[in-house]
């Protein structure tokens, strides 16, 4: 895949935006991840790979608070967020998309995207009812951000369509839009190219690179397509059976015999 992996003038900083140390998460007798260390620096696109069942989703759930780790620590820009509830992690600037699409059928593209803005919305319904004029600037700001992202991801022509009937490529783009309107500093994408053809993958890669360049997000990207990982990621980590087997520069990691073996070994599912 021919993708120009330029950071568009962004300097990759030294202080990590996300730092995981010694993460372990167990489900009953199953050790889903153990001893995982990971650092994502500001402006980095960081790839996370591994065969089915290797612990990728569990690790992101540990970071985002869905399944807090049993051991280890998660730091966001130096702040310890280990075990913090998902909605609080979102408020701190971490947005995610899900492996299995989490869009709301029966709702339009626009309404689905607006939902991503809820972390910036004032929950004071009563206040809004009595002091509607106080809510206006907030409402205008929310709409402004949503419109920017719709334009950025070229969703204008389908904004009023129901998400139900959209092809997978567009659904994934709507999910990305919903994550971006939260204006995150850290974006976690769980297999954003699953089920896409080569052309759709190319578009999605371009949008991720542009989101980093133009919106300043750092990205943790779970992906099975190795051409995507080598094409757009700065660094990567490979898991197998919940453990780290290789990390570093993608072009080198994908040649690591342990990584090749893990993938040739196929699904553990
Ligand atoms: N809620 C859960 N309860 C019990 N076991 C779980 C749970 N979530 C994950 N696991 C187990 O933890 C291990 C890691 O699963 P996980 O979904 O994190 O892997 P993955 O790398 O994301 O896989 P895939 O690529 O298929 O999504 C698997 O053995 C899985 O069965």
UniProtKB/TrEMBL annotation:
GO molecular function: ATP binding
SUPFAM superfamilies: P-loop containing nucleoside triphosphate hydrolases (SSF52540)
Pfam families cross-referenced by the UniProt entry: ABC_tran, BCA_ABC_TP_C
Protein keywords: ATP-binding, Nucleotide-binding, Transport
ABC transporter domain: residues covered: 18-266
Keyword Transferase: no
Entry-linked SMART domains: AAA (SM00382)
PANTHER family: ABC TRANSPORTER ATP-BINDING PROTEIN, CONSERVED COMPONENT OF ABC TRANSPORTER FOR NATURAL AMINO ACIDS-RELATED
Annotated protein name in UniProt: ABC transporter ATP-binding protein
Organism: Ruegeria aquimaris
């Amino acid at each position: 895949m021919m993708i120009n992996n330029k950071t568009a003038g962004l300097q990759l900083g030294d202080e990590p935006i996300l730092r995981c140390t010694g993460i372990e998460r167990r489900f009953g007798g199953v050790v889903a991840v153990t001893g995982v260390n990971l650092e994502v620096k500001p402006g980095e696109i960081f790839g996370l790979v591994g065969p089915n069942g290797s612990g990728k989703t569990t690790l992101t759930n540990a970071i985002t608070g869905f399944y807090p780790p049993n051991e280890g620590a998660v730091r966001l820009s130096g702040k310890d967020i280990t075990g913090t509830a998902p909605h609080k992690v979102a408020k701190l600037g971490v947005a995610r998309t899900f492996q299995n699409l989490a869009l709301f059928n029966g709702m339009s593209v626009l309404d689905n995207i607006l939902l991503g803005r809820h972390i910036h919305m004032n929950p004071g319904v009563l206040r809004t009812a009595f002091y509607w004029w106080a809510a206006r600037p907030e409402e205008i700001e929310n709409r402004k951000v949503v419109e920017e992202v719709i334009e950025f991801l070229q969703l204008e022509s389908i904004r009023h369509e129901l998400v139900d009937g959209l092809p997978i490529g567009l659904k994934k783009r709507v999910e990305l839009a919903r994550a971006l309107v939260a204006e995150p500093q850290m974006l976690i994408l769980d297999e954003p190219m699953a089920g896409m053809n080569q052309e759709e993958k190319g578009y999605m890669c371009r949008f991720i690179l542009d989101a980093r360049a133009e919106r300043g997000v750092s990205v943790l990207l779970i992906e099975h397509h190795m051409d995507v990982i080598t094409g757009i990621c700065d660094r990567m980590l490979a898991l197998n059976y919940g453990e780290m087997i290789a990390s570093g520069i993608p072009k080198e990691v994908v040649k690591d015999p342990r990584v090749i073996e893990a993938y040739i070994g196929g699904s553990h599912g």
